[in-house]
Amino acid sequence: MQPLSGRSVAVVGGGFGGLSSACYLADAGADVTLLEKNDQLGGRASTLERDGFRFDMGPSWYLMPDAFERFFGYFDRHPEEYYDLERLDPHYRIFFKDGDRVDMLPDMDANKQTFESYEPGAGEALERYLEQSRENYEVGMEHFVYTDRSRPRDWLDRDVLKNARGLSLIGSMQDHVEDYFEHPKLQQIVQYTLVFLGGSPTNTPALYNLMSHVDFNLGVWYPDGGMGAVVDGIVELGDELGVEYRTGEAVTEIKGRENAFRVETERGAHEVDLVVSDADMAHTEQELLHPQNRQYDADYWDDRTYAPSAFLLYLGVEGDVPELAHHTLVLPTDWHQHFDQIFEAPEWPDDPAYYLCVPSKTDDDVAPEGHSNLFALVPIAPDLDDDEATRDRYRELVLDDIRENTGTDLRDRIVVEERFTVSDFADRYNSYGGTALGMAHTLTQTSLFRPNHRSDAVDGLYFAGSYTNPGIGVPMCLISGEHAAAKLIEDYGK
């Protein structure tokens, strides 16, 4: 008999954490109903389709292919049964705002030569840096990510002491990187992935240099059809396992406890034994639960450090954009001001660092013939005022900056345009302050310092998603869903 046979579970929210939990729970025999507020599944990994263009609205980098292999492998499947992958070459292009340009490639020898061209000895330093990054990744993933350690007692064993030895666990990424590279551009190249974790070089622990192993060694990939194809693949897997998906059904209240939950929605109520919430955790606690069932008060959420929001322009453009790669970064030579304007003194950045994605470089199906699919993403502080006048002003700033620093003039070629920013994240995803990602990975918000998967106020209620362990990012949310499901099965499985 399967461990959850005869149990019913409601999964609230169809982001990667919810989709993942639903698959694991259905595989364990539960009767799983997933309730999603919006008309699409995928959470922030939704898609926008207009006039022949298809945009990934959220995640657009396919990193950590091993995590996806592991996820599908649990169910005796492989990712390629659901979508095709192509390794990008270059992985990405960087325009520095002093006129310099560099490509990072799948060819490690070429990357070492690039580093050496900026600083004598930097090629060998990159090799040493990536060796430490690889060790952090392999040990960290096996013993501290795939193995959930979200309670103090989880750290009190010999395995932790043995495997934590030698890892770069404390200190900032900035301090760690300065031990290897003096040139500020090289420091930026190995630190840009911090944006995926919602942090800055000064507030993210050095442990996360493991992201450079993800970038340089594991590679940057593109799933045919974009990240929406990955969502579709996981949804298809859930279908095969028996998950029922209900979209356009926003949850308004979660009442009761184990074996007697009532999940109220705009369309009615679902009476279930157990609940996993993948909705924004602050929203779940503050809006969906009665005060006596909350683990944290409003002050707790006010005091967290949140990952950035974003200003996004989705653009359908006539013609090609030859200056840009599939993934392009545009960086000021000193980006600390931008980070300060996110974390220290929040305001719209004067001289932004930003990201451009042109999936039509790789995928002919995301734009009409003779056109390019492009979006621009500028990380900004959550909770900023984003009225129409501000959006208009910032649109002009971004288009000017793209023209000045990449040589790509878009203005007279735009045939489709949509904007998405702080209040849109809050309205569409119920995200706290309009954060695009959740809680940042600061030293005091990592591992056991993040909210637990188990509610300690309501028996039978569990949490998945970027607020929990292991944190921010598509692969991490997949793993969070696994952890939430595993705890539920541990507590209630036969």
Automatic annotation (TrEMBL):
One of the entry's Gene Ontology molecular-function terms is: oxidoreductase activity
Question: Is-annotated flag, keyword Oxidoreductase?
Answer: yes
Amine oxidase domain residues are: 17-488
- Family matches, as PROSITE patterns: PROKAR_LIPOPROTEIN
Give GO BP annotations, semicolon-separated.
Answer: carotenoid biosynthetic process
Q: Does the keyword Transmembrane apply?
A: no
Q: What is this protein called?
A: Phytoene desaturase family protein
Name of the gene encoding the protein in the UniProt record: crtI
